[in-house]
Input
Amino acid sequence: MGTKELSLACAVGALVSVMALDAMAAKKAKIDGKEMFKANCKICHDKGSASGEYTPMTLISDQWERFFDKKYLKAHEGLKMPAGSESEGQGVTEAITPEILQAIKDFAIKHAADSEHPMTCG
Amino acid sequence: MRTNHISTALGCLMLCAIPTQAVEYAHQEYFEHYEGTKTCLECHEEEAKTFFHSQHYQWRGESPSIVNADGKKLGKMNTINDFCTSPRANWIGVSTSPSGKVLSEGCSKCHAGFGLLPEETMTDEQLENIDCLICHASGYRRSLFEDENGQLARKPILWKNQEGLDSVAKRISLPKNAMCLRCHSASGGGPNWKRGDIEYVLSECDRDHDVHMAADGAGMQCVDCHAGEDHRVRGRGVDLAANDMPGVHLSCATADCHGPNPHGEPILNSHAKKVDCTVCHVPRFAKVDPTDMFRDWSKPHYSDELEKYEATIVLASNQVPTYAWFNGITRAQLPGSPAQRNQDGQVEMMVPLGNRLDPASKIHAFKVHRGRLPVLAEKDWIIPIVVEEFFADGDIDKAVRNAAKEMYQVSDPKYVWNDTIRYMGIFHGVEPAANALDCLECHGVAGRMPWKGLGYDEDPLAALLKRK
Output
C-alpha cells in the first residue's frame, strides 16, 4: 500500500470512527437519566414508600458506584415493575436495560449527596 | 517490534492489576463516626471559640470603618439592606408554593450554624451550633428539617446515612473556592444577584474572567487573599458594616503581591497613587451571571417560573462600574436612625466617603444598587420586610407591618415608600493586562470617568493639553 492509499485509508477510518462516536453519543444523549430515574426508580422508591425513599442525594457518589456495580442486581432479583409503570409486570432487571441503567447511574452520581449539585429528582 | 508489543501489553496488564487505592481523606484516622460538631470540638474547641467571635458566626462585629457606627458592633444581623432586607426578620423558615416547591429556607441557610441565632455569650449550645463542615468539608451539604417538636434546624442531608456522612466529614481542608462561592455568589436570591463581581464561575473560570482565580492563571483560592488569623477574614469591601480584622487593609500593593509600583510605565504608577487597581483592571462586572441593579419592594409581582411572589427586580449583565472617591470609610443608614437622603431624595444605605483633596482617597469602581424600601412615616426610619410569607402570599403590606413590629415594636405603622441607593465595591474579576482600560477609555471624549462628579472642572487630561 502506497503512502497516498495509506493516508486515504486513515482518513476514511477516522471519519468512520468519528461518525460512529457521534452516533453513540446521539444514542446516549437520547436517554435522560433524570427521566429514567423518575420512571423506573421513583415509582417504587418515592417518599413514604414501603421500599424506602431513594433520591440521588440519598447516597454519596462512592456508595452509588458500589450499589450499581455490586448490589443492584441482587437487590432487584425476581422483582417485577409495578402497576402504573410503562413496563408493568416485566422483571425489573429486564425492563431496565443496560443503557438505561447506565444513564440512571450517571445521573445518580452526578447529583449525589457529595456532588456540587445534589438533587432530589423532583 | 514484537518485543515492544509484548512489553506494552504486559505494562497494560500490570497497570490493570494494581489494586485501586482506598481514598484517604485529611481526617480519615481522626475519628470513626461524625456525631455533629461535638466530634470536631474534641480536638478543635479553641478554634471553635475563635470562630464563635468571628463575623462569619456573629454576622456583626467591630465597625471602625462605618463613620456613624458610634462604637456599636454592626453587621448584617442588626442592619437593613436593600436586597432581602434583614436576616434577623427572616432567619429560618420554610415557605412553599401550592405545588410544594420550597420558596425560601431563611437567611440562615448561609449562616455557618445549624439554625440557632448567634448569641453574644458563648455557651456549649452555641459552640455546638457551629457547623464546621459547611466551610471545611468538600461534598458536605445540609438542608432544613423539622424535629418532633416542630422546631426547624439544619442538618446534613446525609443525616440518615452515617457511612456517607462519615466519609464526607473526613474530607477536611481549608475552604475551597466552591465552598465560599456557594454562599457569597448566591446571596440576594440568585446567582451573582447581590455582589455583581462574585460569580459562581470563579471556581472554574479562565484568565479572561479572572487572572487570579483561573486554573490557567494564578489558580488562587479565596483564602489566599482573605484568610486572616483565628477565623477572621481580611477585606471588608465598601458596604460591609463590620470589619473582621480592624487595622488590616487588604490591598493588591502588598510586597508579596504587586507592590506600590507594579507598572513598567511611570505614568501608570503615578495613576495608581490616586486610582485603585480595580478601576482599570476590572472594566466590567456581571460578566456571566446578571446582577440585581434595582429592587423595588413596593411593586411585588408573581413569577410563574419561580412559583412565588417577588419584588420587581432589574437584572443586568456586563455592567460598566460607577466611579467615585473612597477613603476606606463608609456612611451607613442604620435602623432606628432618621433616613439620610442625597440630593435626589434617595436614602443612602451605604455610601463611600472621600474626595479629590483627601490624601487617603482613591477613585474606586462600584456597583450602584438602587431600590425602594418602606420608611416609617413618623420616625423616618427604614423598615425591612419579612419576606418568608410574602414569597408565598404576595401580601407586601403584611410583610412590612410584621417587620415594623419585629424591628421597632410598632404595631400599626404608617409608612411610605422611598428610593434607596447603595455603593458596593467591585474588586473581583481582574482581567489580563491586555484587557485593562486604556487612557482614552477614561480621558477620551466618550470616556467613562464622571469628571465633574469626581470634583474636576473637566477631564484633567483635556485641561493639561489646554495649558500646553
Remarks:
- The mean pLDDT of chain A is 84.
- The CA atoms of residues 33 and 104 of chain A lie 5 Å apart.
- The radius of gyration of chain A is 19 Å.
